[in-house]
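Recap slide: Bifunctional glutamine synthetase adenylyltransferase/adenylyl-removing enzyme, sequence and predicted structure.
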Amino acid sequence: MRTLASQITRCPRIFTADQAQDARALFPNAPPEIAALVAGAGSTSPYLLGLMQKETDWCHAAFDDPAGAVQQVIDSAGAVPPDQLSSHLRQGKRRVALMTGLADLAGAWSLEEVTGALTDFADAAAQAALTAGLKAQIKRGKLPGMTEEDADSGAGMVVLAMGKMGARELNYSSDIDLICLFDETRFDASDFHDARTAFVRATRAMSGTLNDLTGEGYVFRTDLRLRPDSGVTPVCIAMEAAERYYESLGRTWERAAYIKARPAAGDLAAGDQFLSVLRPFVWRKHLDFAAIQDAHDMRLAIREHKGLGGSVSLSGHNMKLGRGGIREIEFFTQTRQLIAGGRDADLRVRGTCEGMAVLAEKEWIPSEVAETLCDHYRAHRTVEHRVQMIRDAQTHTLPQTEEGFDRLAAMMDMDVPALRSDLERRLEEVHQLTEGFFAGSTSRPEAAAASEEHVFDAAIVDRWLNYPALRSARGAELFAELKPGLLARLARATKPDEALLAFDGFLGGLPAGVQLFSLLKINPQLSDLLVDIVSASPALAAYLSRNAQVFDAVIGGDFFSEWPAEDALVDSLTEVLEAEEDYEARLDTCRRWAKEWHFRIGVHHLRGLIDAATVGAQYADLARAVLRGLWPVVIDEFSRRHGPPPGRGAVLVGMGSLGARRLTAASDLDMIVVYDSADVESSDGKRPLASRLYYARLTQAMITAMTAPMAQGKLYEVDMRLRPSGTQGPVATSLASFESYQMGQAWVWEHLALTRADCVTGPDDLMQDVARLCEKVLARPRDRADTLHEVAAMRARLATAKVAGGIWDAKKGPGRLQDIELLAQAGALLAGTTARDITSALGDAEAQNVITADQAEVLRRVYRTCWALQSATRLLSSSVLREDSLGQAGLRFLCRSLDVETSEELHAHLAQSYDQAATIIADALAAYVDKADGGAT
């Protein structure tokens, strides 16, 4: 056991006599060495003086064995009940910060011992807070299959320490950068969403325990933004999802961040396994000189963004980010590690000085450079610690006043001229060594292409200042900071000029910019999302330019969480509609709500987070939720004038893609309205209407509510042409008339359409009656030859009337969606079933011997291809996509959606798919085609 007094090698000078006296009075019986130390510390650091005043009793014993006292605090971090944990950890932080601060000022502990103690407590605090958060979820039954004992080892979740915490280099006022992951293989697929939700809640609870500022202060400011796509993903994500992100979208700065990554809390073994899987992403097989340019660009962007370039002026100089600062040494080390770490595993170390030592040993940098930079790094970190421990401030800047330098010099037991001279020398030498490295490296042949900046059309860039979003001084100022980074992102596009034009269109349509630019400044990851959107999808970009506030939802953390499904969406919409009293305000609110969810689905799709089938189901959930939420609102408003619906009410019946619950980003809603007045002749209200007229006007009111252009635009286009007698019939049909028409007058094509009918909203008993009627109609026996003859004739008419709009038209034309759906509906009609699921209906066509099993499988595969294309193209354009309007970003999106690599592969794949399906369908219906009808091939 070594006492603090026996380890003192230096002592801060007295700066403020009154504070020195206050500190000394706390320990009247302390040895002279301790008395001098606490007096110097208290006189220079109000923060340490405050800690000594709070922890006087604890200090008496801790002075006898400072290392042991700190270790005891670390070991007992979680040794209290959950309701006491917050206070206990804050007390622990005070004690660790105080003793490490005194040992640091006294020269008793090295830099590594100081940062190690701070990091060990951060690990212990994170573990204690995580365990408490997990136990709370387990007690509530939210983590399937887990017991409270599992919480002690993470219950399948791991917290990765990043940055300084990962390298065991924490300073006094560091944020702790964490990435929270869970091992999805620990749970059944059916339990995945429940587990993910529980882990997100546990993460938030852990972060709150550590981060929240209470009367006792905070433990550690916690930053969760280093996770994949932090602006748009939950705070805890599945390891598999993280792996996919890094494999496809990971960037150089993220590779550099993972050099220091370390499992710190939770399931450490799972964390080690994840880092092992991620190794190929971080450490490339080949020498990676491109990483130098990326790091150089990052350094320059930080300098430009922070305004830290130019010569060194000590007053207010940033010791971390400024010229010659800590970050330059870290970049120097990490970039060299990235270049060669793929070939040499010895270079894969976390610590900065440790990394430089290995680089020197492996002759990647001269040993004297490593020794010099390591010495400067230790000195810089020491100065940074002194600045931070004055008032526990998250700062890296040197004082701006003479008094401030006097205080700093007293803390370091140096005179001011010597301190200034030492700082200037070290900062300049660091800059010279690291800047020379970056400047020389970028001239390497391997990096020559990376160093050439794309030159954009100045006329386009120059006109931005005239756009509405940049007309305010604040908007222009914020954009000036963002502009270099945005241009750099655009320059990395496959076709930069094309990307610039897309961004120009977005920026020109942006009515105001301060809000969006502020969000992008605070959350740089959103810039990547923005460039992706504007480059690939004009429809999403147009929406975003008019509704930049949607990024608030992105940042909120739920934007990329679990899809809530239809019933939860209805509840959400109902809640926001009930908050509005005015009918028109409700309609506008409904539009805003729906468009935000619509935007979310589109972004998920664009980012490859959901596949085409899921996209279709989510758009359908949203449309159905809108109809279910809005229909009662329209009825209430209509009833104010004309009384409540006479009889049993009316049902909205989804037809086509809505009935099949599979929509695209640009789908209309095919509907019919069926009502039952139950022999009630008219409504009972201020202005009564005959029942038939009442339901016709109520339907028109619903159509208007959906389609009227308001401040937030339209909700959906509505198509009522599938009602009995089409456009010649009434917009609302009575149940009796609907039955009479379907049983005696409807054409075969109308029964084909009925195979996809599905009741969306209305009175439960009436919906059941309508559903039973549809089943009754479909169950009627049919003449096979007559039915297929009608189908063949209809196919021929469609081929003539609806010609395909090119290779990207997945809907119209032989062998495409409409063609395959028609055959599937025919099979369902012959079998007396529904065709809402086309893949199942193709099984009916097979069972009815219309096609063979092999042919059915080919048609299913082609249908999935066509649907993937239809979903993707409708996200890119609300109409049929023209090949000459498809940008490079859009083409990449199409290729990814259909799982091909090149445009040539995509064209060949589509052409072959269309031909295969068209041949099968033509052969299946060949015997039923009249010569007068012709044929569709």
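The CA atoms of residues 529 and 603 lie 9 Å apart.
Confidence is low (pLDDT under 50) at residues 439-452.
(End of recap.)
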